[in-house]
Amino acid sequence: MGRKMIKAVFFDLDDTIVDTTRLAEMARRNAIENMIRHGLPADFDTAYGELLDLISEYGSNFSRHFDYLLRRLELPYNPKWVSAGVIAYHNTKIAYLKSVRGARRTLLQLKKEGYILGIITDGNPVKQWEKILRLELDEYFDHVLISDELGVKKPHPRIFRKALQRADLKPEEAVMVGDRLYSDIYGAKRVGMTTVWFRYGKYADRELEYLDYADLTIERLEEIPRVLRGLEIEESEAGADKEVHSD
Amino acid sequence: MGRKMIKAVFFDLDDTIVDTTRLAEMARRNAIENMIRHGLPADFDTAYGELLDLISEYGSNFSRHFDYLLRRLELPYNPKWVSAGVIAYHNTKIAYLKSVRGARRTLLQLKKEGYILGIITDGNPVKQWEKILRLELDEYFDHVLISDELGVKKPHPRIFRKALQRADLKPEEAVMVGDRLYSDIYGAKRVGMTTVWFRYGKYADRELEYLDYADLTIERLEEIPRVLRGLEIEESEAGADKEVHSD
């Protein structure tokens, strides 16, 4: 039982590999500022508050945020203001897109140690690939699974099972790392994967009712290689124990 | 009749103020190259040819060019390839967006000479404003009219009449400058505006059957101030003639 147990590490994308929440907040703030600069007759806090409400009601992939913002502010439709919002939003998203601190170093280390690496994420597939390709992270990952492809969302077990199947792995050979206790941790644990909760970002402490599904908790991605070595030691000890008991 | 006759100059946007055709061609080429770089199994000429056909069939504002390109190449849907296309397309469009040579100098000169300036264009309003705002050209124009707002397209007379009405002008007080003989020149002439055909771009010599509607032809935007002075001299001479004849 000295054999290596964990063969693959799967990661959530947003707020685990890519620093999405911070980026989206910056992009939205800059959008409102640019709309006001081009004549939107509203104060920043009112307009920004309405935008956040709108996003929470319609979802972040709704394609008409700025049109609807004008409606909510009871202003006539004005393509100049919408355009000012869109430009600032996209400029910010492109200029400030960053990986989470330590992500690249950690991925490189895991690659060197021979792990299979993957992404398991929800979201619009083209937009998710856009983040991966813009950051040139695609070479690190052997498998990128986007739940949309199967018509499900995390924590649906089907996306985790598909990831294991594509990589030809048993659940106990794979680790899932993610910031969301419900979608990532509960989801992966249900199919039998080892779970590492990345306690990160301003929403880190939501969904704490699912904390029991986390085998391990980390605060920095750089902890992962050490944590995996710990799992393998535990595993071989557990194996040794089992052998003793089965005698 | 020494009084200034022409008070306003309206411009088409694409390939008159903004160098659109060249930009779109570059963006499309870079999109195909980046798709191939990320694994699209097609040769450049085949894929680029299909993309051009697709655009001519579905229009340049169709939002799913790259999805449909995969269908036309009989390839399975792949969000990574679509994303690679989208990224390169947008990067090119943002990085290489430029005004037509001489546009800014000409607009500045016309402003100094006291002309009212406007844009009369077709196209998606948010995308048209995006070009204007990204190039920071908005301060030059007193009126921006996008035909979409009225549910028509050039050469429909309604968009030209609306432009005149907004600026409180008679048709004979306004000049229309554009590269398209049918939409810009024939359209503006029908409502009584003076027309200046800007013979520019690789499609400059289409629609020559409408050439008679062009009062003047220019090859460089910098000719406009001189051309306008010529019109005013002609006008005052015609006026002087008329006075003589009406005696």
In short:
The first copy, chain A, is α/β, with parallel strands linked by helices and 247 residues long. Chain A has 9 helices and 6 strands, in the order E-H-H-H-H-H-E-H-E-H-E-H-E-E-H.
Helix and strand topology:
2 copies of one chain form a homodimer.
Chain A: E1 8-11, H1 20-37, H2 44-58, H3 65-72, H4 79-95, H5 103-112, E2 116-121, H6 125-134, E3 143-146, H7 157-166, E4 174-178, H8 181-190, E5 194-198, E6 216-218, H9 224-246
Parallel strand pairs in A: 1-2, 1-4, 2-3, 4-5, 5-6
Helix pairs in contact in A: 1-2, 1-4, 2-3
Which features would summarize this protein structure in a list?
DNA polymerase, domain 1; 247 residues; disordered C terminus; alpha/beta; 9 helices; Rossmann fold; 2 domains; homodimer
Alpha carbon gyration radius of chain A:
21 Å
CATH topology of the largest domain in chain A: Rossmann fold
Class per helix and strand makeup of chain A: alpha/beta
CATH class of the largest domain in chain A: Alpha Beta
Strand content of chain A: 5-15%
Total strands of chain A: the figure is 6
Strand order of the largest sheet of chain A: 3-2-1-4-5-6
- The domain tally of chain A reads 2
Written description of the protein model:
Two copies of one chain form a homodimer. Chain A has two domains: about 10-20 and about 100-245, Rossmann fold; about 20-95, DNA polymerase, domain 1 (Orthogonal Bundle), CATH 1.10.150. Chain A is built from nine helices and six strands, in the order E-H-H-H-H-H-E-H-E-H-E-H-E-E-H. Chain A is α/β, with parallel strands linked by helices. Chain A has a six-stranded parallel sheet with strand order 3-2-1-4-5-6, with helices on both faces. Chain A is elongated, with a radius of gyration of 21 Å. At the A-B interface, helix 4 and helix 6 of A face helix 4 and helix 6 of B.
